[in-house]
Design brief:
Beta-Lactamase, six-stranded antiparallel beta sheet, 37% helix, globular
Amino acid sequence: MTPAHKELLQELQSYAPTAPTANALMERIAKRLHEKMTRYNWTGFYLVDPADAGYLIVGPYAGSFTPNARFPLNTGLCGAAATTGRVVVVQDVTSDPRYLAGSSLVKSEIVVPILVNKKIAAELDIESYFADTFTKPEQEFVEACAQVLATYLAKG
């Protein structure tokens, strides 16, 4: 991780214990990642729909386009991460048929599932207008940011 990654991660980890709600924590994470990481053009969370666990719904986000608000759990890169419980990294979304377009400008995407008691609770989704954004150090950083929320939710 770069010094910038470490500094931002420490800021988020310091805020988490005092966050009044999970929603407030997600808002802070999405906003700060979007502000500080110049290649993160859309940063947000998808949550399992409390009304129907077969769907994901958009949660707090920061970015330059309106995301898909609700879609089936088995759809898109977010659905792939949710159903497998594994991180999905795509360096060129035009080459992956699973990509569910939020914006025609997006070139790469990472989705990190957030598990609580081994069940999908949410996911951190970041999209970039640049191909090859999510290198191994970037992936480790995004996973660490997602862990901040997972730790908070596990206390719930």
